Each structure stands twice: as C-alpha cells, then as structure tokens.
Amino acid sequence: MQFSFRALTRMAALCALAVPLLLPAGGLAAEPQGGVALVPAAEATQVPLVRLKDWRDSTDHERYSFLVGFVTALDMEREWQGAKPLPLQQSLVGNWGRGLHGITLRAINDNINAYIAANPDDLNRPVVEYLWFTYVQPKVTEKVTPAKVERATKAYQKKKQSK
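Above: the chain's sequence. Below: its structure in token form.
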C-alpha cells in the first residue's frame, strides 16, 4: 500500500517528536554487551500512559509533541484503512477524526489545562480518555460508556497476560 506525501511527512514528524517522549525519565540505559539499549528491558514492552498529572508537569513543547504524535498516529491509521473506514467495533479512527475535526491543538491544550485547574483531584485520568469523552463521545452515535471502556481494558489486559 502506498502512503500519500502528507502521511509520510506526518510519520516522519511523529518519529522525530515521539522519541523524547518514549525515553525513560532517567535517560538512556547503559550500553549492554553487543549493542545499545534505548529503553531498559523492564520498560521495553510497556507503553507509557500519559495522565493529566503528567500533562500538568510537562512543558508546552512536550504537550504539543504528544498532541502532534497522537493526531499523526490517527492520520496514519486513516491512510492505512483507505477510502472505506472500519466500523466502530473494529476501529475508532473515524470517530476520532469526526470528534477532533475543526479543533486546533492550541484549543485542546488550553481545554486540558482548564480542566486540570478545575479538577485537581482527577489527575490520574489518562489524557486520551479526557480527549475521548470531551471531543469524540459527544459526536459518536454508539455511546462508549466508562464502564464499557473498563470492561474492554480488563479483557485486553487478561488476553495480554495469557500470552
């Protein structure tokens, strides 16, 4: 499958912006015998979950890097799916596109910051969850409740542990 020039440039931007976000807080791991380790072995299979407390403690550059990377990943998936997007049960990309359509990164950043200021007890909430329920859920015809998200997360974790 071929990607458009726009998709390829976004992929390159994602890679360039995501690298600092994926490194552990302590920096790079010591060089093992026979090669260089970018991430400690214990963290190599884990994807960091960015929570509102992480957002609050991040610089503007880190916040915008996260948003650009997130939107780029959605764009890449949309390109991959082609002209006929998958239904909600198989992919959320179409819904993310509808939910975020017309919203600027600055508006998202400002809204997250305002939410954090108004809800200081909700800092363990994942940023992606906030984005979903703020921008996407109101525009989705099939509602995805927090209970449904929790059930799907538990099922995924159980499946992952059984491997």
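The chain is about 60% helix and 0% strand.
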